[in-house]
Design brief:
The chain is mainly alpha-helical. The chain is built from 13 helices and 8 strands. It folds into 2 domains: 2-151, NAD(P)-binding Rossmann-like Domain (Rossmann fold, 3-Layer(aba) Sandwich); 157-285, N-(1-d-carboxylethyl)-l-norvaline Dehydrogenase, domain 2. Helix 7 links the parallel strand 7 and strand 8 (144-148).
């Protein structure tokens, strides 16, 4: 996600400095005009606003709080915007460090995937200090449609709520396709009918090529990644003292998919998981 977001910012006229734990991944961006930093801390040499997009809590804390991290090196008043999907606990830890340093920390996770990032179509779910949001809004608007949701962790909660629905939709699409296959319905015809019906959605449309072409091996987001997010959802629910029965079931299905060797495939591999569970020929083996 970070690469198409950085590319989008370059295309909309921003001066961009990039850093990645795997330095080779910055090369297409430096070829397009970005400057490469040697450490996260070095980013502040050319800006007072930094964005992070990382995989999980550990990566966020490493980049923000580790040696040569963003927080300790940031100038007072700088705005640090994290756009990752991480836990509220990790977010609060970074927020506390930012407050001690006089840095404004904006939580701004996004929805829309790499395709949305590349064309400025992300939903940006922001929360944190209002003045940080106001300062960042022009930049965030170049990435998509920013919304201000509150002064603390509300952006994280809304992002997880969206991902909860995505997880449910993916499993239901898998079940619908297995049902359609069992009834002799051509898969492309089935997906076209679903997409033009009352239940059609962006999520289903975006994943239709994966289902029709059985192309699970080049994922935008993996089974393992979705299980990570479902775990975050479960943690938030547990802390709030609420039960989410469908989420619990989907978590078990994702774990089963990983046990069957499907973890590094697209999260639509819940479909071949279901085929395998029913002793049917699996798309993942096609």
């Amino acid at each position: 996600m970070g690469a198409p977001m950085a590319q989008r910012l370059l295309e909309t006229g921003h001066e961009v400095t990039v850093w990645n734990r795997t330095s080779a991944r910055t090369e297409p961006l430096t070829a397009a005009g970005a400057r490469a930093a040697a450490t996260p801390a070095e980013v502040w040499q050319s800006t007072e606003m930094a964005l992070t997009m990382v995989y999980d809590d550990t990566a966020l804390k490493d980049v923000c709080l580790g040696a040569d991290g963003l927080v300790a090196a940031a100038p007072a008043g700088a705005v640090l915007i994290d756009m990752s999907t991480v836990s509220t606990g990790a977010s609060l830890e970074v927020a506390a460090a930012c407050e001690q340093q006089g840095v404004r920390f904006l939580r701004a996770p996004v929805s829309g995937g790499p395709a949305g990032a590349g064309k400025g179509g992300l939903a940006v779910l922001a929360s944190g200090p209002r003045d940080a949001y106001d300062a960042a809004e022009p930049l965030l608007s170049d990435l998509g449609r920013p919304s201000y949701l509150g002064d603390a962790e509300q952006g994280r909660t809304v992002k997880l709520a969206i991902n909860l629905i995505i997880a449910g939709v993916v499993e239901l699409v898998a079940e619908a396709v297995v049902l359609g296959d069992s009834g002799g319905v051509d898969r492309e015809t089935l997906m076209e009918a679903i997409n033009t019906s009352a239940v059609g959605s962006q999520v289903i449309k975006m994943r239709t090529p994966v289902v029709v072409d059985r192309s699970y091996a080049t994922p935008n987001f993996t089974v393992e990644g979705l299980l990570k997010d479902v775990g975050l959802i479960t943690d938030v629910a547990d802390e709030a003292g609420v039960t989410l029965p469908a989420t619990t079931q989907i978590s078990a299905l994702l774990e089963d998919a990983i046990a069957r060797g499907l973890g590094d495939l697209s999260y639509m591999a819940l479909l071949p998981r279901l085929q395998l569970a029913n002793d049917l020929p699996s798309d993942a083996e096609a």
